Amino acid sequence: MSYALNIQQANAVLDEIRKDYTVFAPKRFPKQGRYSDTDIIRYAEISRFEDIVWDTKSDYPAKEVLTPIQQAIFYFTEDEYRESKGPKKPYLVLARPCDIAAQHVQQKIYAGNGGYTDVYYERVRKLVRFAMMECNGGDDTCFCVSMGTNRTDDYSLALKFSSEGVKVQVTDDDFTGYFKECPKAKYTPSFVEENELKVTVPDLDNAEVRKALKTHPMWNEYNSRCISCGACTVACSTCTCFTTRDVIYGDNPEVGERRRVTSSCQIEGFDQMAGQKEMRSTAAARMRFKVLHKFHDYKARFGDSHMCVGCGRCMHRCPEFISIAATVNKMSRAVEEIKAGMAEG
Questions:
Q1: Residues 6+ away with beta carbon under 8 Å from 160
Q2: Strand 40-45's sheet: what is its strand order?
Q3: For the ranges 137-141, 216-220, 254-258, which has the lowest average pLDDT?
Q4: How many domains does the chain have?
Q5: pLDDT tens, 284-323?
Q6: Which pTM was predicted?
Q7: Are residues 140 and 216 in the same domain?
Q8: Residue 328 belongs to what domain range?
């Protein structure tokens, strides 16, 4: 069933939904951007229709709702520890198709990783319902069509926003009651069919090709371009790297909490081992690892899709203007060059 709501009606429905759900959506935070007098858009709890930023891509992904940048995992004293508590109410998350696809990726990593389930992720994920925000086509950094993440059927509600209000398609019976007084309308959600930016992911099934690609000179440019800040992975819809940190309360070193804190494989020292040995000691090696992980290793392990969903947020956040799309296309050309050399040899 579908409905057409003006802003007043949308706020009335939102008020009813919020009695049963905590509702998250892209929200603008004025004057909190990277540069002076700039805003930032990130996911946060909303209380009214006007809070929702529906016409601009958020700077940070929906994953922050399920896996915050910092979260307490347990509290400790001298004698005992207590696990942190999960949310009491279910979540309704307003997200575009690519962000919903990203949670399918994270689900496999957190809940299907060699039989181990991450309880801190799973206790939140099982409470999440999605309201799919119809995408306006994205911007010049989006390439969801190339990654096959421009469509989804994993949603309880589909939403098409305008300055006058919102059209809603209800696909989950649990939400039908919230709209019983709303005017009905004909609405079928549409999806992005083409992006301005297109990416060609190379076939890396051949082990010899992968080995040659790892030593290809294309990676060397990142030693001078990438500053290893990790901004790309914090803004990524699917990255899951983290570290842990103890926060001490007051002067007693035996009372505090252990937090899980977002980290990045792109930061120098992240993979440091005993004896200060690093597996990837250069920016080029770290970039190569990230790109091959997202565009080969993840799919080789889980079998259905690549890890990248083409949201393009990493390109927005990179202070050196490194484009993951350009990097993958460059990698595709390098693979063709390698295969041509093998054929001639």
A1: 134, 166, 167, 187, 189
A2: 2-6, 165-170, 157-161, 128-133, 91-95, 22-29, 40-45
A3: 137-141
A4: 2
A5: 999 999 999 999 999 999 988 999 999 999 999 999 999 9
A6: 0.93
A7: no
A8: 207-241+267-344
